[in-house]
Amino acid sequence: MKTMSDEIQCKYCQQKIESENYRVLLDGTRLHLKCFEYIANPGKEFESKIENIQQSINEVRRQLYIELNSRSYFKKLFSIQTDRSNELQTEYDRLISHHKRLLDESSIFNFKKLTEFEEYYDYWPHRPLDWETRSRSIRNKIGQCEKCYRKETKKRKLHAHHKIPISQGGNHLESNLKVLCNYCHRKEHSHRFGKFKSDVTNKSFQKKIARVEKAIQNGKKLTFEYNNGRQPVEEITIIPLNITYVNGVSVRGIDDELGKKKIYALKRMAFKKLKGRDESQDNVALIKKAMREDRLIHCTYRNYEGIVSERTIKPLNFSKFQNTMVVECYDYLRKTKRSFRPSRMIDLEIVDQPGKQKRKS
Fold first, then answer.
1. Do 158 and 152 form a contact (C-beta atoms < 8 A)?
2. Which residues share a beta bridge with 250?
3. Span 33-44, mean pLDDT?
4. What whole-number distance in Å separates Cα of residue 40 and Cα of residue 20?
5. Is there a contact between 55 and 253 (Cβ–Cβ < 8 Å)?
6. CA–CA distance from 83 to each of 93, 263, 321 (Å)?
7. Are strands 222-226 and 177-181 parallel, antiparallel or unpaired?
8. Residue 196: closest CA among 186, 187, 188
9. End-to-end alpha-carbon separation of the chain, Å?
10. pLDDT digits over 350-359, tens only?
11. Residues 6 or more apart from 293 whose CB is under 8 A from it?
C-alpha cells in the first residue's frame, strides 16, 4: 500500500518525496528538506565565499603589517616599499576588489531569489526571509496605526501585525497583515514589545553596536566576557560576521577557538574597555606629557603576537598607520627608531633614565 509520501511531489524540484524527510508549508505544500533549507537561505553559498575572502583579507593584512614594521627606519622615513610588501599590497587590493564584487553579486542574486520564492514565503511556517520587505511595504502604504490612527513618531513606531496568527492558520499575505503602532501591538500580544527598542536606544548599548560594526568593517576580532546565565562567565574571541535584529540584538561570528559559527546576544556581552574610560586615552595623555617635558616612558608592551617585553622609549610624535594611532619613538631595547600602539602599552611611567630592557615571553 502506498503512503502519502509516496504519492506527493516536492513543489520546488518536482521530484517524488520518498521518505518522511520533508517540510510542510502553511498551505500544505511539501518540500524536500534540502529544498526547504535552500529556499530559507538561498544566499548561503555566497555567505561562505564572502567569509573565506574576509579571512584571506585579514591574513594578508596581518602579513603586510609585519612586513611594513620590519623595514628599517630609513625605509619607513621615506616610505620605501620592499618587493614583498608590494606583492602583499597587490594581493590585498585584489582581495578587496573580489570581496566587493561578491557582495554586489550576492545582493543581485538574493533580490532575484526573493522574487522567485515569494509564493513560498507567503506560507512560510515562520518569519520568511523577505519579511522586512513585506513589513516595510504595508507600513509605507498605510502610514498610520489602524487601531489608534496615529502616525509614526520618534517614540511611536509602526509594526506589521498578523490578523490571524501563524499558529492558528494565518499566512504572510498582505490581506492577513495590518499596521499597528508599538503601543497597540503590545496590547495584542501577551508578551512585551518595546524592551528591545529601549535596549537599542540606550547609549551604552549603542556603543556596543558601534564597536561590533567597527570590528566587522575593519575585519578585526572581538574579545569579550559572555554570560549566558547558565555557565560561569567566560572570555570569548570571535571573528564577527554581522549583527541580527531578530528577537533582540545578536552578533553572529566565528569562534576563534572552536572555528564554528555561533550567535551571541549583545546584552550578554561585556567589553572591558566599555566599562570605564579607555585605557589608551590615559596612555596617550601620559605620552604627551613626557614629550612636553622631554622625558622618557618606561612600560610593558604586548605586540600583535602576544609577546610581552619591558622597554623604555623616547616619544617623538604621533602618527597613523592603517587608521590606527601609533607613537613614533626611539626604542632603547632595539636601539633604533620604532612605532608602537599606545593601546598595547601597560603600566606606563615617566622616567629620566632608561629602565630595565627585557623580553618576557
1. yes
2. 244, 265
3. 84
4. 19
5. no
6. 15, 41, 19
7. unpaired
8. 186
9. 73
10. 888 876 665 5
11. 350
